Amino acid sequence: MINKTRIYSIFIFILWILFHSAYCAYAEKTAIVIKSQNLSAYNKVVKGFQDECIQKNITIKSIYDLKGKMKVGHKIVRKVREKNPDIILTIGVLATTIAKEEIKDIPIVFCMVINHARFQLAGLNITGIATEISIEKQLKGYQTILDSLQNLGVIYDPSKTGNIIESAETKVKDIGVNLVKYEIKSSKMVSEALENLIGRIDALWLLPDSTVVTKKSFDLIKSTTLKNNIPLLCTSDVFVKAGALAAVFSDYKFVGRQAAQLAGEILERPSTDSLGIVNPDSFKLAINTDTAKKLGLKLEAILGEPHIIVYP
């Protein structure tokens, strides 16, 4: 006969295992946020991340600002590595590239890195949210205000945004849009590109391409497209504020929430391997109503939509 004391001990041991397992499953996880600098868009991401982390039982232990300085960044990232959080959120290219270099054994979720493919942000511990909205969603947003859009012009430097063009070419055809491309190697070629595209396109798509977009060239692009009644479509509301017609861009606060959702998914898995790079789930459409009026566009029917932001 089994001793009653022994049975009781076994029972207590089993209960301990069950409660310990339950505790581990729901134990509080920790995160640290590293942002490249103090920008309004980055702060909106942080707010969204904080809100969603509460729902995911993830505690944010620290939020660091690199202030755009590489030396500061390396020092802070090494400090973060020593604190050994369960997961790290990096916001912006500086924070993300330094974290990728310094940290190999803690999961990293990154966001707000423009044209992320240029920075080879791949790794077993790296998951990311692309800054650019998917091509399909961008075109859907543009077609909200330009229902007759067929020929979409784009000026690009293959070394900077060739990957975006390659991805876009097959996708735009499925939506019934023809991509009219013009390659350049220097910002001095922007004027030539515009001359070549005028008369062949219904709108111009401005990519986040540093060869194409400089302060001087943007002024030229904006004035030339407006003069020739060509809508200028962008991927950032900054350009809409400056006079472009429209931009489809990330809902920054929602990007933060999405980052927390990815963090929660990673921490719930038996392995903390990368979930890859995903597109933002939500977007906003910014419209410059002064520019729309100059182009003769009537937008009254859509201006009340919750995802639409109006400038000026």
- What is the share of helical residues? 40-55%
Please identify the oligomeric state: single chain
Mind describing the biggest β-sheet? 7 strands, mixed
* β-strand amount: 15-25%
Q: Could you name the CATH homologous superfamily of the largest domain?
A: Response regulator
Low-confidence regions: 16-25
Radius of gyration, in angstroms, nearest whole number: 24 Å
Helix/sheet category: alpha/beta
CATH architecture of the largest domain: 3-Layer(aba) Sandwich
Principal-axis shape? elongated
**How are helices and strands ordered from N to C?**
HEHEHEHEEHEHEHEHEHEHEEHE
Please give the alpha-carbon distance between the first and last residues. Answer: 86 Å
CATH class bucket of the largest domain: Alpha Beta
CATH topology name of the largest domain? Rossmann fold
Nearest-integer average pLDDT:
91
Count of helical stretches? 11
Total of domains: 2
Please provide the count of β strands.
13
How are the strands ordered across the major sheet? 7-6-8-9-10-12-13
Write the layout of secondary structure elements.
Blueprint: H1 4-26, E1 29-35, H2 40-55, E2 58-65, H3 70-83, E3 87-91, H4 93-102, E4 108-111, E5 126-129, H5 135-145, E6 151-156, H6 158-174, E7 178-183, H7 190-197, E8 203-205, H8 215-227, E9 232-234, H9 237-241, E10 246-250, H10 252-268, E11 277-278, E12 283-288, H11 289-294, E13 308-311
Parallel strand pairs: 1-2, 1-3, 3-4, 4-5, 5-11, 6-7, 6-8, 8-9, 9-10, 12-13
Antiparallel strand pairs: 10-12
Helix pairs in contact: 2-10, 3-4
